[in-house]
């Protein structure tokens, strides 16, 4: 029996046979190629090289379109690496003469070359070695592609063990058969980790090297609560974990029951509790947990990690999936919200490092800079909106002029679709995220322009208090209880109330039960929270009255220290949500 | 290089960044428009000028002397064009 430790990213316990994935970095088959198969293997190599070349060409065209010839030529150079006759000749020779597999041969040749570059004593060329490793990875991805597909053809329950899983691989995991997964790489904030939590698949990441110690089919226990992976457990350990597993399951079933039905306060006010999602695959789980709709559908996954630009059809399919799941209930789609360096994933290196990306070209600013990208997304949203109750919102709006500009593009897209006689819904509500202090300050003016507000507290806190919460040195300055933050949130809620505009809070503040009574007391009636928190937030709402919340808010307004507000809210929460209500 | 005549020329590399990836890329694009073979020697290393991997490994620094060799009917022209490319201080943007 062997015990390994990793980062617990999605709770639950799974027990079952190990399924070791043809690893990305990389379980390369060394097995020699039989003489008869040589030609087939060489052909496979050429097909994979051609696919990599196509990917690079697509990126080149995209770069030329959006960034100019100068950047595109970088991809042109990469293309010449893939098409290098000497490279191909060397790999081919290893397959033909040494009977190596194309995977092994390419990896050996490319790695040796990358190492040579690193040792030439030229800083610039040493850095280019990364490009060669990239190339190796792309090539192996195509060569090993068929193996990875095994994942979608599972027929029995397994625990997936891998070097790493991409977010899209995680999203595609068949929950019927995949009981849990553990990866050597990854951190708690990776997309893969977030997704595992959303999909309720017990998972641990960042275990470090362990794949070499395990063979497929061996029994493993995956403890997603404690971040433990037990390989070849003894009978006593198995028994212990079977009990833990049962207990965990009955607990989560009890929690799930809380999500059923409407959330109405003790004085009869109905509160909408929606969910925040990123991947279309999350929609069903989110609905099962009792979400009244989607208050924030992040669309970044359509851009991250993609080799090329996503087509309108890719967007459309992703939106349809969620809209179809929720039927008449609202689905609020937020347009692209990442930095320019992520557009698309593979083009990172053509941008210079910006010293202050949070204040740089990101979010709606990227959309307005790359209009074609923006229009593609809007077209897909407008088309998908025919089939349900979709809303669109723009992130990081910082001035009224900027909102008008985005809305103008929206109208242009409607006109285009109209002219092309493509079915779409031009009447969907167009709203904005309030997450830049300037927007909160001008909330009353914005209220005349928009169809709804959604307050993004994470960025609002960061920009108001000038503190990056991911930086441990200043994390203490990032505090949602700060009176300045509450002042801005209140300002927006009041402006919306006066203008009779719908308003939601979709940041982490609304997922934190401590803040919910305060937000309701300030007039909020629509929360959008992480799917996991839906049941508990609904239960909390059912325990309180708006009158109590308003009194609580009044008291908070009189406190001027974040610490005092937090202590007060924590105390009140104990009263509203006693332990007996928690499963 | 096979039987035909080999033309040689020595050129001083003026490209500000040396033979970096983009410059190599331009060399390959240029050479691929011609029928013959081209080799570039820098110090003790010789590169096939149609191979990205070879060229990059030369790691030729600015102001170094490169020895060019070309075969084929248009060898003279290739050398002229290469000399022009390599002895311009700025990389052409295409």
Mean pLDDT of chain B: 86
CATH architecture of chain B: 2-Layer Sandwich
Strand order of the largest sheet of chain B: 1-4-2-3
CATH topology (level 3) name of chain B = Histidine-containing Protein, Chain: A
Characterization of this structure:
The complex is a heterodimer of chains A (583) and B (94). Chain A is of the alpha/beta class and 583 residues long. Chain A has 3 domains: 2-19 and 157-252, 3-Layer(bba) Sandwich (Glucose Oxidase, domain 1), CATH 3.50.30; 35-143, Enzyme I, Chain A, domain 2; 260-577, TIM Barrel. Chain A has 23 helices and 17 strands. Chain A has helices at 38-67, 69-82, 85-98, 102-118, 123-143, 145-148, 167-171, 191-199, 235-259, 282-288, 312-326, 364-369, 371-384, 400-419, 437-441, 443-446, 457-465, 483-499, 508-511, 516-521, 534-543, 546-557, 562-576, and strands at 2-5, 7-10, 13-20, 158-162, 178-183, 203-205, 219-223, 228-231, 263-264, 270-277, 294-297, 330-334, 389-394, 430-434, 453-455, 503-505, 526-529. Chain B is α+β, with helices and mostly antiparallel strands and 94 residues long. Chain B has one domain (7-86): Histidine-containing Protein, Chain: A. Helices cover 33% and strands 22% of the residues of chain B. Chain B is built from 3 helices and 4 strands; from the N terminus they run E-H-E-E-H-E-H. Chain B is globular. The interface between A and B is medium-sized, with 22 and 20 residues.
Layout of helices and strands, plus pairs?
The complex is a heterodimer of chains A (583) and B (94).
Chain A: E1 2-5, E2 7-10, E3 13-20, H1 38-67, H2 69-82, H3 85-98, H4 102-118, H5 123-143, H6 145-148, E4 158-162, H7 167-171, E5 178-183, H8 191-199, E6 203-205, E7 219-223, E8 228-231, H9 235-259, E9 263-264, E10 270-277, H10 282-288, E11 294-297, H11 312-326, E12 330-334, H12 364-369, H13 371-384, E13 389-394, H14 400-419, E14 430-434, H15 437-441, H16 443-446, E15 453-455, H17 457-465, H18 483-499, E16 503-505, H19 508-511, H20 516-521, E17 526-529, H21 534-543, H22 546-557, H23 562-576
Parallel strand pairs in A: 3-4, 4-5, 5-6, 10-11, 10-17, 11-12, 12-13, 13-14, 14-15, 15-16
Antiparallel strand pairs in A: 1-8, 2-6, 3-7, 7-8, 9-10
Helix pairs in contact in A: 1-2, 1-3, 1-5, 3-4, 4-5, 9-21, 11-13, 13-14
Chain B: E1 7-12, H1 21-32, E2 38-42, E3 45-48, H2 52-58, E4 65-70, H3 75-86
Antiparallel strand pairs in B: 1-4, 2-3, 2-4
GO molecular function, one term (chain A): kinase activity
Protein name (chain A): Phosphoenolpyruvate-protein phosphotransferase
Cofactor (chain A): Mg(2+)
């Amino acid at each position: 029996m062997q015990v390994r430790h990793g980062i617990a990213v999605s709770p639950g316990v799974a027990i079952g046979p190990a399924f070791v994935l043809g690893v990305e970095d990389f379980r390369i088959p060394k097995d020699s190629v039989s003489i008869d198969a040589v030609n087939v293997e060489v052909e496979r190599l050429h097909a994979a090289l051609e696919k990599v070349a196509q990917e690079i060409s697509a990126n080149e065209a995209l770069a030329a379109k959006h960034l100019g010839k100068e950047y595109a030529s970088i991809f042109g150079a990469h293309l010449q690496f893939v098409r290098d006759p000497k490279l191909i000749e060397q790999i081919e020779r290893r397959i033909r003469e040494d009977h190596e597999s194309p995977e092994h041969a390419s990896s050996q040749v490319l790695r040796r070359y990358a190492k040579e570059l690193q040792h030439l004593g030229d800083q610039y060329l040493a850095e280019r070695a990364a490009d060669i490793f990239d190339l190796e990875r792309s090539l192996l991805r195509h060569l090993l592609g068929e193996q990875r597909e095994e994942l979608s053809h599972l027929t029995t329950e397994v625990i997936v063990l891998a070097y790493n899983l991409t977010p899209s691989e995680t999203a595609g995991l068949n929950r019927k058969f995949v009981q849990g997964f553990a990866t050597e790489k990854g951190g708690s904030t990776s997309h893969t980790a977030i997704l595992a939590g959303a999909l309720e698949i017990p998972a641990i990441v960042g275990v470090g090297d362990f794949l070499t110690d395990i063979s497929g089919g061996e029994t493993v226990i995956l403890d997603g609560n404690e971040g433990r992976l037990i390989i070849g457990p003894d009978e006593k350990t198995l028994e212990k974990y079977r009990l833990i597993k049962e207990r965990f399951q009955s607990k989560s079933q009890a929690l799930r029951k809380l999500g059923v039905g409407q959330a109405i306060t003790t004085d009869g006010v109905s509160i909408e509790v929606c969910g925040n999602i990123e991947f279309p695959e999350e929609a069903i789980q989110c609905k099962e947990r009792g979400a009244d709709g989607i208050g924030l559908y992040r669309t970044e996954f359509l851009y991250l990690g993609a080799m090329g630009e996503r087509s309108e059809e890719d967007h459309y399919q992703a939106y349809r999936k969620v809209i179809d799941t929720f039927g008449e209930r609202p689905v609020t789609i937020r347009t692209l919200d990442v930095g320019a360096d992520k557009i698309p994933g593979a083009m990172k290196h053509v941008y210079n490092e910006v010293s202050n990306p949070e204040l740089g070209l990101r979010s709606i600013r990227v959309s307005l800079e790359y209009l074609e990208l923006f229009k593609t997304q809007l077209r897909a949203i407008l088309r998908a909106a025919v089939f349900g109750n979709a809303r669109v919102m723009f992130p990081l709006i910082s001035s009224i002029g900027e909102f008008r500009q985005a809305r103008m593009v929206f109208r242009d897209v409607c006109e285009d679709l109209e002219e092309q006689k493509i079915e779409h819904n031009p009447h969907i509500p167009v709203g904005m995220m309030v997450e830049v202090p300037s927007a909160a300050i001008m909330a009353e003016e914005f209220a005349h322009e928009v169809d709804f507000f959604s307050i993004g507290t994470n960025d609002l806190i960061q920009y108001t208090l000038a503190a990056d919460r991911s930086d441990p040195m200043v994390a203490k300055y990032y505090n949602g209880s700060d009176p300045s933050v509450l002042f801005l949130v209140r300002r927006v809620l009041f402006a919306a109330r006066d203008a009779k505009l719908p308003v939601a809070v979709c940041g982490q503040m609304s997922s934190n039960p401590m803040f919910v009574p305060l937000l309701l007391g300030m007039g909020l009636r629509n929360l959008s929270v992480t799917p996991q928190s839906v049941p508990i937030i609904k239960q909390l709402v059912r325990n309180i009255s708006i009158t109590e919340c308003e009194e609580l808010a009044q008291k908070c307004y009189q406190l001027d220290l974040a610490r005092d507000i937090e202590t007060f809210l924590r105390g009140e929460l104990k009263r509203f949500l006693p332990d007996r209500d928690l499963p | 290089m096979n039987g035909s005549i080999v033309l040689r020329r020595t050129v001083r590399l003026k490209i500000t960044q040396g033979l970096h990836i983009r410059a190599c890329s331009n060399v390959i694009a240029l050479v691929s428009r011609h029928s013959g073979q081209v080799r570039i020697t820098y110090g003790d290393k010789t590169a096939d000028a149609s191979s990205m991997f070879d060229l990059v490994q030369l790691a030729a620094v600015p102001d170094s002397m490169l020895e060019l060799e070309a075969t084929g009917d248009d060898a003279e022209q290739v050398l002229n064009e290469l000399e022009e490319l390599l002895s311009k201080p700025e990389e052409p943007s295409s």
